[in-house]
Each structure stands twice: as C-alpha cells, then as structure tokens.
Structures
1.
Amino acid sequence: MYKRLLIFTLILASFSSYSKTHLIPTSTVYVDGAGMGIQPGDTILLEAGLKPYLMLKNFHGSAEKYITFINHNGKVEVSNNDFYYGIVTYNCTYFRLTGTGDSDFFYGITITASNGVSNGLSLDEFSSDFEIDHIEVYNTGFAGIMSKTDPRCDSLSSRGFFTQYNSVFHDNYVHKTGGEGFYIGHSYYGGYNKVCGTDTLNLYPHDLINVKVYNNIIDSTGYDGIQMGCVIEGCEVYNNVITNAGITDNASGMYYGMSGIVMGGGTSGLCYNNSIYDGYGTGISIFGLGNMWIFNNVILDAGRNSRLVSGPPDNHHPYGIFCDDRTTIAGSSFNLINNTIVNPRDIAIRFWSLQSSNNRMYNNLIINPGVKKWDFNRSMIDVTTPLMGMADTLSAGNYFDSTEYLPDSNIYFLNIAERDFHLKPGAPNIDQGIVLDSILNMSFDFDYKNRPMGRSTDAGAFEFSSLPELVMISPADTALCEGLSFELSIDSIFPENLYTYQWFLNDSAIHGRDSAVLIIDTLIADDAGTYKLSFSNGFTEAFSNEAVLNVIQNPTVWAGEDTTICFNYPGLSLLAEAENFTHFFWSTNGDGIFETDTTLQSFYFPGQADKTNGSVILSATALAETSCDSAKSELTLTLDACTGIEDVNQQIRVYPNPTGDQLYIDSGKDPVLSLKLTDLKGSVILEKTLNNHLETINIREFDSGIYILLLLFRNKTEVRKIIKQ
C-alpha cells in the first residue's frame, strides 16, 4: 500500500502572491506536511475534481491559528471501491477540513468509499483539535466519519498517554453507510484484549474531551446514526436530524447497534434538540459514565421499521430511550427531561441503571408505546431491571397517552406527517410539566425558546407559545420630516425567539422587516402610511394596533434662471417655483426693492447700488409648516448699460406712457410673438399671442396704477413698466 501512495508524493505549490496559500492538485493523493514549511494559519486549497482517495499527514496548526483545508474552484469528489478510506488524516492537529470553498455547493467535498471495510472520512493516528464541516459522505463500506486512534501495543495511543481534544463536526450530510454514520471514540471504554507478540495485553482506549456534533443530517446508516464513546468530558450532540438508522436490520446490526444516537461507554455530557425518525432500533441508547442530560429530543417510530421479532430468535426490543450500567460511575445521574417520544415499538423509556442515583425523569411526553397492553405504566417508563431491581429515579411532570393517533388526526402536534411537532392550541400536555428553573441547561425548548411560557412547563420537546391578547406598538401617530430617522417597537417585552415578526405598511408586508423593532434610517415620502406588526407562534397569527406615520416632505424652491437686463429697464419680473411649503419670501443682497416679497410672482426694482455693482443676487426661500428644513434658491440679475445694442433697443417703442386709453407698441424690425400685462402682484390682466410689428392695446377699463408689460420676441424678452392714469 505505501509504495502505491509514495508514487503520488506532493510537490506543494505556493501561489506567489499568497505566501500562506498552497494547492493540492487533483492528481495528488498523498501529502506529508512534515518539512514543507506549512505554518499555523495557512490555507491549503484542494483542487476541484475527482480523485480516488487522499491522505493528509503531519500537518500541525496552533490553538489560535488552525490550518484550513478547503475545496477550490468547485467540488472535490473523492470516490473509490477498492481502498480502505476516502480521506484520512494521520497525526494532524489544529486544522479545519471544510467544503465551503465554492458558494454553489453547500457540501463542497463529497466522499464515497464502498469497499466493505472502508470509512469515508477517518481522523486517525493521533489526530486532534479539528473542525469538520460541509462534507457529504455516502455509500461507504463501514462508517461515514470515523474519529479515534485505536490502542496499540506500544500503548502510546492508550488512555493516559494520548487524549483527543476539541473535535467538532457540523453541517455534514452522511447517508447510506455500511456501518455507523458517525463513529467517534472507541466502543470499549472498559478495555479489551489485544495480542502483542507473544503476550495478550489488556488495552484501554484513549479519552476524548470536548466533542461537539451538531447540525448534521444522517440517513440510512447500517448501524447507529451517531455513536459517541470515551468522551469523558464536554460531549455535546445537538440539532442533528437522524432518519432510518440501523437499516442492516439483522443479527449483526443488533450486535453493533442500530440506535439513532448512542451516548456510549465512558461518555458524559449533553444530548439535546435532536430529531430521530423511523429508526430500526432504539432512539437513544445511554451507556455512559453518568452526569448526562438527555432533553428536548423528538423520537418518532423507534424500531417500527424493523422486521426482527421481539421473541426468539431475535429478541429485538427497540425502545424510545434505553439506559444501563455498562460504565456508570456510582452515584452519578442520568437526566431524561422534556423528550417527545411517539409510537416506539417497545417501551418508551427503559431505565436499567442501578449504580446511578437521583435520576430525573421529568416532563417527557410519551404517546402510544407498542407494549401498552402489557403494562400501561411500565410501557411508558420502566425502571425495573430484569432481576427486579428498582432504579433510583425522580419522576414528575410526564404526560402519558396510549391512544394510537393517525398522523392527520392527533390532538397534540401541528403535522406529524410533515414532522412538525409544534403543539396545537389546546394540546393536553400544555402546562402539564413542572418548572425546572433550578436545573442547569433546562431553560429552553426545541426551538430554543424560553421555558416556561404558560403557567408551567409543557411536557415534551416543544413549549407552546400562545399569542398575547393585545400587543401595542409605539409611537402610535407621528409626523416627521423627510430625511429623519424613525423607529417603531412593541411596548411588551417577550423572550428572544418566542415569536416570528413581520411589519406591514398599508397592509403590504415590508420585505426584510422581520424583527420586533422597525428602524428606518432616512425617511422618504413613500414611507408615509399606516404601519402594523404581525407576530406568529408558528401556527396562528395576530396583529398589533396601527400606527400612522406622516412624512412631511421638505420644501423645494427654484428662483429662476440667471438674467441680464439693461439699466434703462424698470426691473425684472419674477416667478419662482416651490413645493411643500407654507411660507415664502424673496430677499436681495442689494439695495433694490420687491413689489411684494411674500409671493412666488413679484417684480424687482433694482437700486442704484445694484446698477453700480453691475449685478445683484435675488434669493427665494421656502419654509415648511414644522421645523423641517427650509429650501433656498438664488438667481443672479446682471445689469448692463446695453451700449452695444442701443440702436436695437431704441427700435422698440411703447407709447404713450403714462396713458389713460390706448397703448401702442412698435417693435421695429422684430415681430412681437406674444405679450403679457400683469399688475404688481403678478396677476395676469391681459395676455395675447401675436406675430406683429405694430400692436394696440386698449387699457381704458383698467384701474389706475403701475403695470408690467412683457414682450416676447424670438431671441429675447423685453419688460416695460406701464403707468395707467
């Protein structure tokens, strides 16, 4: 075997621009990190493509800086049917093997190794302190993922000489395995005999400390879904979904185990919030040291798939949860709390540990155990051993129901067929448990919502979160200026993750606004309207009161285009444009005066200083009703002696002025296209469309006073002040 491997010894390539990034080509199947200069914190890219197997040997990061092995430019596919493993690590520490290198693939590394004794991924030969994630393992001859170093005759890997630390497995998909899905730690905590030369030695497997297995999907394993062994401290198995464990369904399977989860010999820790469905054996088997907490697990149809019989020759008894004294420390305890066990083939909880004491059996929901006709109470929780010993247990808050419910007619769960075990309103197990405030780790349910929510804790894995009768949001009615920030929140205080939320504006859901607080950083006009908040416990929905937001738009104003007029003109007719305002005024930096300074349309009479300076700035300001921002716009009025066009100007005659009757207009060479006569307030008195050089206006009926005459030519506009006598 080794000659075959050495043919593929890696020549490691470093990218010149990334000194700490290295590449393992697809063609390379054996990599020895010793002497290659790999440093803690380095990243090693696994080139995408198909390879038969891969051995990683002698790679060592540090506790602060793991070495990362990650797929590169696609999916890495490892597949063989004639070798002992798919991927194996030998003597590697402080590393991460992850399939997150390409966003197109949730599982960026896939492994198949269908030889009858092969493991998909094996973390072997003193490998420790690692993280394994986003890897798919399937069609393996034996275990999907194996993690242990077997005892050797030199004892270097035995208990007391080697300990495996900090092993984390998450977000992996393991299915269709010949043996266990996850095989972590050795099965024989009490030791076993091994022939070493001419001697037979009793060897003890090494301990494991701090092992986490979470968020994995395990399906159709030949033996146990997850088997933990020798994890003496810091074991956590949670948030896993395990289906169809133990599909071998034969004598071999019974010998090696067909449980969903095994908290095996030498193990102590937590097993919670797991879903275990349709297994061929027991849901959870417990053979550990004690001081173990098994809670918030959902176990459905344990053993119902098996064809093995309860009597001879098989004597197959699949329980919901089973516990015995294989490695129990005297005086320790096992705690089975708030588990939901539905339709197990045999007894729901069978507890045969006599070495332990003060074992808690609290708040479990048990429905329809298969042997209910044998003995109702013992079919639910049986603490009597085969020799009629009685385990030391504390039992309270459990809810038992022997009724056989069809998936679509049960009174407890929203939808068993869809594996939705949230409680229906009025479910009989609501508030039937006991409050566990004083017990460590018992403060949340399967959804990580706080317990209790009602008068008492609910029996089973899920806590029913009833909706409050009224939830108020505030502020109720608000008027705010455009551009400001705005916040709406509920007046009540609820535990985190109790409800899901959705904000609505004018009865339409606001995308991405799904928290208890609504914050708008910068208001715009479209944010105005009626807001409300929906909140749901997963099966019913309620709404808060409505809150009305009025967005006051900031004013806008435009004074007009910059303009040039001649000295001899009386002034400039002004017509500003403004929106969203309640007050308006004109101002000047010169010495002229406005006919009126509070209307959009006005007339500006330049002063002597304006003419001396040659220009003046006229400002239009609009104000909103509230304290919202004002708006200001300026135009520059240029005053010109117009000496270069004097003859042209002299050609335009408006006479007599003053007049009390007729007004004559002689435009000379250029025809007048239109004219407009306004009073000093800007009101239009007369407007005509023309194309004449000569025009007569009858102003006899007009009131005496000053008027402004605007004459529009093809390339200019002329303004005259008219006095009506």
2.
Amino acid sequence: MKPTETQKVPRRGKRIGECLVEAGLIDHETLAKALEIQKSQKKKIGQILIEMGVADDVTIAKALAEQLKLPFVTLKKKKISNEVIKLVPAELSENYLLIPLKVENRKLVVAMVNPLDLYALDDLRFVTNIAIQIAVAPQQDILDAIERYYPKPGLEKGFETETDEEHGVELIRRVETDEKDLLRLMQIAELPPVVRLANSILADAIKLKASDVHIEPQKTAVIIRYRIDGIMREIMQTDKHVHASLVSRIKILSNMDISIRRKPQDGRFQLKFSGDIYDMRVSSIPTSYGEKLTLRILNPKAAAMGIGELGFSGRELEIFENSIDAPQGIILVTGPTGSGKSSTLYACLNRINTSSVNIVTVEDPVEFDIKGISQIQINPAAGVTFASGLRSILRQDPDVVMIGEIRDGETASIALQAAQTGHLVFSTLHTNDAPAAITRLIDLGVEPFLIADALLMVAGQRLVRGICQHCKIPHDLSFQFISKLPIDINGAKEKTFWKGAGCEKCQYTGYSGRLGIFEVLKITPAIKRMIVPDVSASKIRTAAIKEGFRPMCLDGISKAIQGLTTVEEVFRVSPPGPELLEQQYISTPISREEKLVEEPPAGPSFAIKNVNPKKILVADDNQIIIKLLVNILESENYHVVSAADGLEALKLAHQEKPDLIITDYLMPEMGGMELIKKLKSQLSTRVIPIIMLTAKDEVEFEVAAIDAGADDYVTKPLDARRIVARVARLLNR
C-alpha cells in the first residue's frame, strides 16, 4: 500500500503493545511480561519483544502496518537524497527511530518503527512545517539508515559545513596496492563526516604552521594535539568511537594496511593547500587504547632556504660559508631531534648545487626532493644502511656527500676517510653542543688524528620561538633573568627587551614562528692539538672561547636584544652553562633583598580535592549580569571565568579551554556575533557549545545568532532554572 492523502493518523492513546495483541502477534500475558521488563530496563516495547524472542523486527513492522492500514517498507536498498535527510534533524531521527524517505504531493513520507508515537509526529510537523505521511519499517532498517545518512554524535559536531580552509585541501592520492577485503572499514573512512573531520584537522594544522599532528586515543576520548613552534598544544577532544574511522581514513591515504593494528607502520601522502603541496609523513604505533598516529608536516619551502635565511650572525656566518667553500673535509651540525639540522644541511646543499657538482645523499628518510641531487633512502631490510650506502656512494664519483646522521662508528670512520680523499662531506650528530661532537666521534671509535685532519667545522643549533610582531611590547625582566645576562654584549642590562602580549594572530601565546640560535666551532690549529683520546668537551669549549667562539646561549641573548625572541625562550632551550660562569660572562648573584622581593615566603600547604568541575566562560559588559550568572552557575558546582568584552572572551577561550561559553550580543571591542564566528572558524574552539544571552527577543536576531554558530539563544531577564537547564543540556549533549 502506498501512502495517500487520505491516510488516517492512528487514534491518540493507542499503544504499540495493544496493536500487536489485536494483530494476533502476541497475547495479553506476553504483553504483560514485556511491560514488566520495560519498567526496569527503560527500553522500547518492540525491542523487548525482539529480545524475548517473541518476534523479529520485520514481523512486528508488518503486523503494525497491516493492523493500522499503513504501508510497509524496507530500506536496505533504498537511496534517500541529502535534501530530504536535511529536513529532519539527526537528534529527532535518533530519539524517535524514524527516517525521512521523500517528499511526495507536498507531503513528507517518513518511515517509523512506532507509527503510534504521536509526540514524534507532532515534533516532525513542527520542525518540518510539512504534512506527514507515515510508513512502517523494521527497526534494524531504521537504525542502519540513521547510521548511513546521519553522522555519529561527536564526529559531525562542529563539522556540519566545510570551512574555506578544509575546502582548499586537495589530497594527492597514490595508487592503492592493498587488495584485501576490508570494504567496511574503507567505506566508513570515506563517509563525508570522516572526510570533513580529517580535512579540518589537516587544514587547521597547516594554517597554524604545526610541524606535527598527534591523534591520541584515551580511555573515553580521542585527543588531537599539534606541535606548534616546538611546543605541544592540545587542540580538541572528541568521542572515542570517532577514533577507528579517523585512523582508517589517514591510513588509507598513507597507503598503510588498515587491517594491521597491533604493529607499528609508516606511510606518507601528499596534499595541496592554498596552492602549496605538503608531504605528510605518517607513523602509527599500538597503545593500550588503540592506535596512536603522528603526522609530520613537511613544507617543501623549508628545503629551498639559503644560508643567509637561517639566522647566522656575522662571524658565525663567515666561518660557515668559508667551510662550505672548502674543497674537502667534513662539516657537522649538532642538536637534538627537531632542532632544524636537516634544514641547515639542505641550505648548505642549495648553496653548492650547480650542474658542475655531483652531489649524492643518503638519508632516513628522504624528507625533501631537491632537483639536481641524487638522494638515497636507507632500507635496512634490503641491506641499505648509512654505512653500506656511503660505501656505494663513494664509487659514484661524488664531489659532495651528505649523510643524514652519523649513528655508529663504521659510518663515522667511512665519512671522515671520505673527507680526506677529496670529498666535501656534510652530516649531523645528536650532541648537546658543538664541542661535544669531537668527544662523541672519539667515543664512536674514530681515531683522534683522523678527526683533527678531516673536521672543518661543527655547528650547534637550537630553535627558539619568535616574538609575535603583532603584539610586541617592552618587557621588564625579573631579577633571576637579569642575573644571568652576560655583561659583554654591548651593555645588555641597559637594553630594552621585548615580549608578545598575546593576540588572535598568535593564538594568545605571544610567539609566532621560530628562528635558530647557533654556535660555530672552527677547527683551528689550537683546537686540532687538543683532539686527543682523553680530551673533554668542556676543555675544548674553554679553549674555543679564548679564540672567539660564542656559545649559542649568547647568540640567543643577542637576538633577544634585537627583539626577535625572549630571554626566557633562550634560557628554555639553551641555559647558560658553567663555562660561562668561569669566563665571567655572568653578573654577580642576586642579593638577599632582591630574592625576598621575587620569592614570597611559602604559605601553608592545602590539600586540593580531586574534583574537575565543568568550566564555563561568561562574556558580558554588564557586571551585574556577570555576578548573577556566577552565583547561579557556581551554586551548581560549575567553575566560572568571566570576560568584560568579546576580545577578552576570545583570549580566555584559547587560554582556559572552557566546556561552554555564555556570551552577550552587544559588547565593546568585539560583539557576541563576531566572537561566535571567530570561535567557530577555529578547530580548537569550534566544538565548544555557545549560548547567546541577550535582551533582544526579535526572531531575526535569534536566527542570525543560530546561523553564526550559537547552540542556544536565551533572552533576558535571567531565569536561573532556565539557564541551568540549557547549560546542563548542552554539556550533556
């Protein structure tokens, strides 16, 4: 039977159990048992009958359809247009177990599990403003359709529409070679909400200039973190069930095996964003709560940098360039992982990369492709290691050799021997500073005379965060930092130092971008004579300082004086060592009186309760409203922070990470509408629910606020019960 315009709505008050008894599917005794079970289990009566084994969902649906003279439909092969799906909200569909099918004769045809639920019909008419035609479908068909056409809670939240950034992400797909039957996982990974979430994360990470993206499963949630300017920053948390589909999406793009979840894997893919192509290097490892993914974002522009762009100061730059121009020898760059060593080596190669020079590299992995250079990826499984690769390279008549990293004595010995036989060699070492590179080579078993003859120069480096130029202000240093400033850098203590106050451009951190601080150790005749088996790095450093060597800490302070970074940031990555004290670079210690000013006496120790209340940010320029809201919300055990305008609220939203925001419509500096739009435009704040609280009760203002991204709209005057109920609903959503 097809729905018709004369279809009668079931009479009000009739229940599904009674209807099934009338249809002869169950008897009164079975219905009584089911109703008794329903009192304790709070399930729908149809589900209880299915679990009792009385009937299956198809039989129940057919019985209801026949008894109520309604059409029976199955949905497994039925395709529903997105325009029709958008007519009914996901929440309504899930609550009442129904799905819209089509619009016919100006009526919306809806398949329902329980056509006797008149509240569902009332809500449907109110939401859609369309006349409703009812059909009956099996429960499992409805559930499958909801899963197919509506995103899971938490997956779509905040990603209902594509932003400009994620729309600009173009994935550069590789040819798939995996032919295993993993159709379901692959289909889930290709669903629009999953694609939008993955694209949003990638676009947001590139926009914020993150170097790494971490997708970390926890017991009940998935945490997304970025490494921005060398510092890990939590961006968002989402529901745990999102994890499998998100990981599958990334693994498929990376040409990784999605069926393997208990072994580490590596992969890579490319994407285009704002006209630039980025290489994404992906690593997965199994953890207690599932697979953890780390994505390294490689910007090809970093491989095109020149020596002058790295940030070397005058004397250090001269030594560095002279060493690169040498016909043979070895140049080493030292520092921890993530200190920019590879970028420095690529800059060296760019300087000498001409058609008359044969350059060969062996790397793990090959991070950037450079035109005109032969690059070799090590592959231990195939017998290609740094040592074996280097031996092969030397038979290729190279002029310049670059080794990604010296990890063992064999590689070190071959590299230094090559540097003595007419080759210019570049490589990296993991040491804390430049002088320690010499002792590290000796520890690896390289003969000291070989080091002295072949080594030209060692550069040590770190990356520090740069001051945001949009919010740069003068900075009065504390006594602790003043006491550590060297007295030999052009009256450093009398100079003006700077910091970032924090603004929207820098996500209220005060920092934007990174720059290098360096130390360059030239291997002079005096240093060569010191390279003996028992020499220490501190002795080499002391001797080098006498010859003009400047530790990277001093290079960093010099850049802080120039207003490029802060002294705190320099001391974070490169604190002054004892050698500086011995050379009297540091001023006298703080007096006792100064210490008393900076270090207040310790107060009594208070026990902190292990409580983590929900945090709510209230933004309103009316202090009376703020006080009222604080009293109302704190009485419900919420933690409340407040802002007097939209600009301050935007800053606190990034710093405090609230669970919910209540904002006024009209505020100085930045209004509520602009605040909502800015919050919804950024991934880190997009999923925070927002309530617009205002005296404006006109419909057009409410519609505009909802369209901007507000989750609720409440009018003044304040009603405590109403605001508490709205807050609780959004927090529990």
3.
Amino acid sequence: MPAGAGGGETKLSTDPVDNGPAPGLAAAWHRHPIGVPKKKAGVRRGINIPPAVCQNSAHRVPVQGLKPPMLQSPSVIAFILLAFHVVGLVAALHAVMTVRTAPGAIAWAGSLLMMPYVTLVPYLIFGRSTFAGYVDARRFNDDRLREIRHGMTPREREARSACVVHEPTQVCMRALPRLTGMPCLANNDVRLLVNGTQTFDAIFAAIGQAREVLIVQFFIVHDDALGRRLQALLCERAQAGVKVYFLFDSIGCHALPRRYVRTLLEAGVDARPFSTHRGFVNRFQLNFRNHRKLVIVDGREAFIGGHNVGVEYLGEHPPLAPWRDTHIALRGSAVLDLQMSFAEDWYWAAREVPHLLMPPAEVGGRMTCQVVPTGPADSQETCSLFFVEAIQSARQRLWITSPYFVPDEAVFAVLRLAVLRGVDVRILIPARPDHVVVYAASTIYAYQAVAAGIKLYRYQPGFLHQKVILIDDEAAAVGTANLDNRSFRLNFELMVMTADKGFAADVAAMLESDFASATRIGPDEFLGAPAPLRVAMHVAKLFAPIL
C-alpha cells in the first residue's frame, strides 16, 4: 500500500540494488536536485530508523509514533516519588533524633515528610553534623596532656597544680569548669587590645619573636596588604626553623587564592583548612563554621578576640569603617588550655596532634581565667549555657556588646529576669548592617527587649564587631561568640572569662566610651518603620535558628 494512503505500516526493502525512492518518498525525492545525496532509507516523517532495521524486511516501523520512553511511564514516576518519600521519612526520623532544638526538628521533619524531593538534598548538606572525629581529638589531647605532665619536672607539675582554682569565688565562674571540661586557672595576665592597629601591631611583634612553635588560626584571611604581611611573617619564621601551624576556615576563606596557601606551604608552614565535611560537599556546607581567632607564640602568649585578617579590620573599608573591635593578649597558665582548644581543631583538620608547650611559670600574673571553647560537637549547648550563666550571675550590671542580637529563648529569658532583679542590663549593637537579614531580625528582637526594660544602644561611628561581656565589677569575657543562635549552636567559638577587678575596670572604661558614641533604641525604631518593612522583619525572625 502506498505511504500516506491510510496504511499504518510500510515495508522496507532489503534489495541491495538501489531502485530509486520508495513511492512514499517520491515527493521528497523530486525536491532534491541531481547530485545531492539522497535521504537515508528508513527516514520517514521525522523518525530516524537504525540502518540495521532498514535492511531487514521482517521489521516493521510504526508510522504514527514510537513507544513512550521508560521515564515517561506513570508507574516509573510513581516509583520515583515513592522512593523520595521513603527516604524523606528516614531523614525525618534522623532529624527528630539528632536536631538539637524542637523548632529545628519540627521544621526539618515536616519539610522532609511533605516535600522530600525539595528538602532532601538541602538536609543532606545542611542537616548533618558528623563530628565523631572531635571525640577522637579530645581523647588524643587528653593523652597529650598526660604526656606533657609526665615530662614535667616535679616543680613544674606542682606549679601547674597550684594554678587550678577548685572553687572560684566569682559566681560567674563556678559552673564553667564542669561545663567546658577545663579547669579555672590562676596566675594569668590579660590586657585589652582596642581596634585593629593596636591588635595587629601586638600580634605581629609577638610573631616576630617566635622561636619554637607558632599557632595561627583565623576564620577569615584576605589576600590584601594585611594578609600578605601576615603571610610574609609566617614564611620568615618557618624558614628560621620555627614550627608554624596555620589553620583557616574553608568557607570563611572561600575567597583566599590557592597561591596564598601554596606560598605558605612552600616556605615550610603547615597550613590546613578547617572543613566540617571532607570533599566536594563541603563547598555547600554553610553551617558549623570554625569562627575562632587565635594566635599563640611559644606557649608563652596568646591573642584572642574578634579581629579577622583584612584591611577592613583596620577600619579601611567603607562603608563599615571605622571598624570597632576588641582583642586580648593573655600570658600565663591559661595559654595551655588555649593550645588544647586549638589541638582539637587541628586534629580534626590534619588527623595529627600539634606540638604543645607548657607556659613558662615566670610569665604569669595575678588574674584568674577560664577558657571557654564551644561548638556543635559538644554534648551540651555550651555557648548558650555560657551566656545564661554569665547573665544570671550579674547582680549590679551586665553590659554586652555584639554585632548581632538574635538570642534564643533561654538567653532572652534570663536577660528579662536580670532586669526584674534590678540589674543594669545594657546591650550595644551596630547602627550599620553588614547582613541585611540578620539586621532585620535584630531590630525586632531589640524592640521586644526594649519592651522588657533592657537598654539597647546602636553604635554610631562605624561597624561594631566586638564580643565583650562585663559582669558587675569583678569579671569580663572577650572572644569570638556573638549573641545569636549561630554562635550558640552552629559555630565553633572561643571565649576567655577573666575574673579581676582591675581588668573589669578597664573593660568598663572601654565600654563607657563606646556607649557615649551610641544612641539608645526606643520602641519607635520598630513601630515607626513602614508596614512592609515590619512584615519583612517578622519574616527574618523566622530564620533566627540559623542566623
């Protein structure tokens, strides 16, 4: 039957002799001039037929269409959706069992059950926290500490034991040894380093004096003038025979060129990135960052605080300039505990224990210090509990500075209770945003805090990045932890609580100067905002658990 005459099939010739076009292809044949290659046999109405089929007369090719592909089959699609829901159910159970907060567990589990094909991949990337290596790190660190103790002379062991304060007189210090697993230690000296120039002048001077072991850890390092100055110092010390450890967060330093690290490695610096997951998936892992900033020179002196490495931290990067931040320089027995904190991070990154040094006894002072390392690998929410303990211990005043104000329910509750006890509660936050969503959430939390009687201020000259807590006239803490959920539960942080009236007076004078450059927040900041902006603030608050 001629093609196009109503037949559903057409036979294909197997004759090796070319007898011209089949009748059904006559029109197409005559449209081609002589000399132009003919169409291949078996091409019919846009359907390509394999040559092997074209040469076998026993085969028939449907004219009206082909069999639908497997992936278009309703049964296959149903199976794929069912598989997603089964895996989503398993992931939802995992979220219920592992996510620390009830709101977070409910959000993940509900999303995984209802929309697993949308939520499953983000959960695999953001919802996991495999920190079994941290348990190993702490075990190795305990062994290393025992080795150090065994290697000490009897006089050194006695001096170390004499530094341990078993029953601190300050209320804010009493729970911290058990919370952190680290002792409260006497015989320390702590001094404030205000803003970037003073901080990096002190750090670079100390690095230049390193003779045995140099530890450098930062969340952010930029390849700019300040970053290259640090790089040159580390290379020079490594080439001089100093053992140099350089640990940087892989996400915080995402813009750091590979050549920066390669230069360090070629000079003999042991440089490693801190990644919560190994391999390609870490590029998408935005949670669980290592936010610590720490420099330790020869086990003798340590530097801790809010500064990262970049010219903006010197106040040279508008529109956030001038940059307001605080570091501390610490000498004494607590430097060993700071080395232990670094050793955990280094073991996670390198699977080796760094070389640790005992602090020289002669460099101690008269201050009592408690090192407070916190992170998502802890069995408890150490950072949140640290803030709760500091706040509830205040009797006369509690002054806090933080670039972000997104507290969890526990911290917000003890802040309100402190006001009800008659404590002078003041919180200083920035007037300029560096993260719009966090700033919006901070604004609505500030409104609620003001309604509860908490005094909130916005720092006016520039961006405020310092993390400082002042408790009455007896203790103060400086470090890396912000007053937000990310520091409470998601980041690795490091604080040092110092109990000393002289140091507390220095911190009070510093903060009084900051408050003098700030304006107090009233309810009109939120109520006077346009309605769409207030709605946006409420929406931003929904993301508080990850801000």
